[in-house]
Amino acid sequence: MYKICVLPGDGIGKEVTVEAVKLIQALAEKHHLVFELEEDIVGGTSIDAHGVPITDQVLNKAKAADVVLLGAVGGPKWEGLDYAIRPERALLKLREELGLFANLRPVKVFSSLVHASTLKPEIVDGIDLMVLRELIGGIYFGEPKGVETLPDGTQKGVNTEVYTTPEVERIAHKAFELARKRRKKVLSVDKANVLESSELWRNTVVDVAKDYKDVELDHMYVDNCAMQLIRNPKQFDVIVTTNLFGDILSDEAAMLTGSIGMLPSASLGEKHAMYEPVHGSAPDIEGQNKANPLATILSVGMMMRYTLNLPELADSIEKAVEKVLEAGFRTPDIMSEGCQLVSCTEMGEQVIKNLD
Ligand code: NAD
After folding, report:
1. Is 291 close to ligand 1, i.e. is its CB under 6 Å away?
2. CB of 233 closer than 6 A to ligand 1?
């Protein structure tokens, strides 16, 4: 029996999670497994109900589960709030409290979707890379931070990029372990030509690499990497980088696939794990049944593979998605000529229908 804590969040997070839950239930029935699903609220929905983006009760529920499935949080309604109680704080708190230091974002282009990308098909066809982002360190957490008013009445805003050797070591180990199961190439991305914290990052990754002589290690400055991702993305296997650089590069890599609605992610710690689509709550399409649920559905696939140890279920989800795309079903974000436009609900149903 597996206990899954489901946190749909806000906006389309709620819509795509419904489809993921139906898929989990269908898999349970098909494979005679028991998934105990416990749903609760986070983000703006929790602010409206409890005044905070996540309650201690929900945090405890997440900690008690085998795994967490999250939709997305945020929206214009809560944008004016203080940073300390904005919906996005729920994510930071979950990552911090569950110790989720490694964020895995696989970027794989389905051959039936090569034309959905804004890049030329020959550039994107065959892309299979993994962005590994450090998730609970760096500038998003470093102290000092804040905005202060100076004696002359102007203001000063500060955030601090901080990394310690153990923090870099554990994410570097993760990168090499992942690369061993893939094409055995790690690229560490930093800004060591300018930032001292990046120099520490680079030196530490080089030290960790000594334990993985079978894996090739390269380094790239983040500005060059941003360019190379567009110029020749097929050169990459595992890209490991800091919280801030990973946040930006993974969204850039996302667009190689054509839509952010296709990208799953996993956040792993020593004891806990959380799976969520890369996209946000998409207020522009909220409530219209237009969201692409495939990122969340593929996140369920990653959950089966990396946490629940059910690789055959992960394979069957990925194959079902492939079949549905090959059959020409498309939500508006990936729509192209000659294909059949479907809603979020219909896309979810098609995936279930195509499970082995
Ligand atoms: P977004 O990812 O929500 O949307 C960006 C664009 O992509 C929009 O045009 C949207 O319609 C489209 N899109 C996103 N997901 C899609 C899907 N599944 N299917 C089809 N189209 C999709 O990013 P944003 O607009 O910058 O942010 C909106 C809100 O979401 C903000 O409040 C932001 O803070 C929050 N956000 C949350 C997360 C998260 O919960 N992990 C991540 C990013 C942004």
Report:
1. yes
2. no
DSSP annotation of 215: S
| Token reading at 124 | 């994107």
Amino acid 356: pLDDT: 83
Quick one: fold of 1-104+262-356?
Isopropylmalate Dehydrogenase (3.40.718)
Amino acid at 300: V
Residue to mutate (ligand 1; options 279, 299, 321, 342; most atoms within 8 A of CB): 279
303-326: pLDDT as tens digits: 999 899 999 999 999 999 999 999
Note the pLDDT of residue 149.
98
The residue with tokens 């309604």 is 77
Q: Which residues of the chain have pLDDT under 70?
A: none
Q: With a 6 A CB cut-off, is 295 part of the ligand 1 pocket?
A: yes
Residues recognised as catalytic: 140, 191, 223, 247, 251
Number of Cβ within 10 Å of residue 126's Cβ equals: 12
Instruction: Decide if domain 118-257 falls under CATH 3.30.70.1280.
Output: no
In angstroms, the CA 82 to CA 47 distance is 12
Cα of 230 from ligand 1 centre, angstroms: 21
Supply the pTM of this predicted model.
0.89
Take atom 36 of ligand 1 and give the residue whose Cα is closest.
Answer: 280
Angle between helices 56-64 and 88-97 in degrees, nearest 10 = 50
pLDDT by residue (tens digit) across 20-45?
A: 999 999 999 999 999 999 999 999 99
